Amino acid sequence: MYAGSCLCGAIQFEIKGPISNIVHCHCSQCRKAQGSAFATNGIVTSGDFKLLSGENKLTAYESTPGQIKYFCRICGSPIISKTESKPDQVRIRLGTITSDVIERPMAHIFTTSKANWEDISGDLPQYESYEPGR
Predict the structure, then answer these.
(1) What is d(CA 2, CA 101) in angstroms, rounded to the nearest whole number?
(2) Which CATH class is domain 2-113?
(3) Most buried of 22, 54, 71, 117 (most Cβ within 10 A)?
(4) Alpha-carbon span 41 to 114, nearest angstrom
């Protein structure tokens, strides 16, 4: 089980299952949403994600048709995103998890959109768009 929260602590959540498909996304939307070089995201099943407090502090933004990003209306922390075509999945921003994460990232994606000031290093595979299989 994992515990997590936003920066100010108004939103608290738990994840009762594994986190899959963890990637470092370098697309321009993720960079802007995070204010950083990339976003590290993973997928959990909707039934494994539970808000413990602060549901009324969540606000949403439809970044593309059918994809909603949820963040704290107080501190601005991005928490999750949902895709209407995949109601059984929640994409979690790993930086909001306060527990030690057991699973590890599997790839860098959208590397052709990476920030020009960033150098990607390490042994993870790099893909121009989504990782194979998605």
Answers:
(1) 8
(2) mainly beta
(3) 71
(4) 16
